[in-house]
Amino acid sequence: MKNESIGMQFDDDCPATTEADWANAFVCHSAEELHNEAARRTRGKNKNPTKEQVVIRYDADILSAFRATGKGWQTRMNEALKEWLRQHPDLSRV
Q1: pTM of the full predicted structure?
Q2: Which of these, 61, 85, 65, 83, lies nearest to 74 by C-alpha position?
Q3: Per-residue CA distances from 16 to 5, 6, 22, 61, 67 (Å)
Q4: How far apart (Å, rounded) are the C-alpha atoms in residues 34 and 27?
Q5: Over pLDDT 70: what percentage of the chain?
Q6: Domains in the chain: how many in total?
Q7: Considering only CA atoms, which of 59, 47, 50 is closest in space to residue 78?
Q8: Which of 10, 80, 82, 89 lies 20 to 30 A from 31 at CA?
Q9: Range scoring the smallest mean pLDDT among 43-47, 54-58, 62-66
Q10: What one-character DSSP code corresponds to residue 14?
Q11: Which residues contact 34 (CB under 8 A, 6 or more apart)?
Q12: Beta strands per DSSP E along the chain
């Protein structure tokens, strides 16, 4: 079917939109506006880092157990490792 009023052709792969399709639509800003907003929200470089980002692999059951505790699971994992070091002071100085 061809829509003569706008010069577009619609088929099963590209159906015409309806009012219902647009009912929950929202305004999208230009790429420049989105970039500026993202830049404004960025915290910037940490001037006094107390943590170091690393890549490490854990067993799935360990991650699952910590993730199951909800938001803040990485902080709790960090605290568990600190506690282990307190319990093994001879290894914390290696």
Answers
A1: 0.48
A2: 65
A3: 12, 11, 12, 48, 44
A4: 12
A5: 84
A6: 1
A7: 50
A8: 10
A9: 43-47
A10: B
A11: none
A12: 2-3, 8-9
8 Å CB contact between 12 and 1: no
Give, rounded to a whole angstrom, the gap between the first and last alpha carbons of the chain: 75
Q: What is the per-residue DSSP string for 29-55?
A: --HHHHHHHHHHH-----SS--S----
Distance between CA atoms of residues 30 and 36, nearest Å: 10
Q: Are 41 and 34 in contact (CB under 8 A)?
A: no
Report whether 16 contacts 7 (CB < 8 A).
no
